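Customer escalation, tier 2.

The customer says the design service returned an amino acid string that "doesn't look like it belongs to this structure." They asked us to rerun it and document both sides in this ticket. The original structure tokens are below, unchanged.
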């Protein structure tokens, strides 16, 4: 399975142009992908530079007609003409999607910095070895308190998923909303975590969680032990990121999946966003 995660900055490249088709082209240049996990996707947000209020969710979905498009909206506010301005995550999957869960992350008040609601989008896809969870998210940048709470929530969601792994089918509930749907312990967690590898929160995300709950492991370090992370932000857009490039976009896998990690690659060539896309190759 080929999975790409990317904070696409609503499709805005280093040239200031918003071009969702360029995002898809860059991903296709990386791999014949099965799953795209995209952060900072927008719809009808004219205040976002270069967007003109475009429906980037819709354009990306239309560009991949053979994929299932799953949205998770974190920010949803009114704009003129009766529309809603929306901002959040998008997963596009060529694999069958068995279940979708949308988790609003903690957003405790922190009035001294600008913040916005955050969401984690979880899907369960069919695979050769059984169902697999894929979750993508975008944690708070400005507020350490909020980012800390959001990391704890992601850990709790992993524990919650593991508690559902033994769920059994009940014939009297089949066909309705109580029907048992797979939510396995094994999972992939991707996104823009807005923290560097040396952060205590990076380590916290990988701490043990509990009995029968596989902890998360950084797929980069599984594949490239001892090698520094390739930078995922600040390579091309020096107006927003004038300092040294660094890594804040990760792919974590549960520890029971580490032996299936065949490769993790950061695309250091594209300037179609202010972040760089990251590819995971996971053995089926």
């Amino acid at each position: 399975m080929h999975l790409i995660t990317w904070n696409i900055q609503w499709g805005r490249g280093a040239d200031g142009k918003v071009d969702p088709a360029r995002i898809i082209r860059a991903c296709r240049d990386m791999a014949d992908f099965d799953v795209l996990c995209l952060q900072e996707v927008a719809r009808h947000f004219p205040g976002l530079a270069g967007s003109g209020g475009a429906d980037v969710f819709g354009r990306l979905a239309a560009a991949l007609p053979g994929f299932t498009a799953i949205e998770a909206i974190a920010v949803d506010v009114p704009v003129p003409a009766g529309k809603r301005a929306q901002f959040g995550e998008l997963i596009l999957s060529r694999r069958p999607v068995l279940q979708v869960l949308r988790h609003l992350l903690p957003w405790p008040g922190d009035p001294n910095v600008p913040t916005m609601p955050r969401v984690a989008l979880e899907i369960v896809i069919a695979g050769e070895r059984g169902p697999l969870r894929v979750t993508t998210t975008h944690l708070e940048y400005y507020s350490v308190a909020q980012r800390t709470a959001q990391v704890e929530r992601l850990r709790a969601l992993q524990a919650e998923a593991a508690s559902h792994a033994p769920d059994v089918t009940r014939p009297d509930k089949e066909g309705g909303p109580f029907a048992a749907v797979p939510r396995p312990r094994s999972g992939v967690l991707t996104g823009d975590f807005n923290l560097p590898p040396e952060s205590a929160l990076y380590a916290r995300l990988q701490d043990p969680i509990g009995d029968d709950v596989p902890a998360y492991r950084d797929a980069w370090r599984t594949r490239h032990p001892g090698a520094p992370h390739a930078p995922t932000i600040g390579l091309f857009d020096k107006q927003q990121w004038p300092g040294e490039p660094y890594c804040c976009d990760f792919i974590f896998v549960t520890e029971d999946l580490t032996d299936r990690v065949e490769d993790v690659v950061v695309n250091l060539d594209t300037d179609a966003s202010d972040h760089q896309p990251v590819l995971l190759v996971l053995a089926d």
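Tier 2 assessment: The sequence is consistent with the input. The radius of gyration is 18 Å. The helical segments are 20-30, 56-63, 144-164, 200-205, 219-223. Sent an explanation to the customer and offered a walkthrough call.
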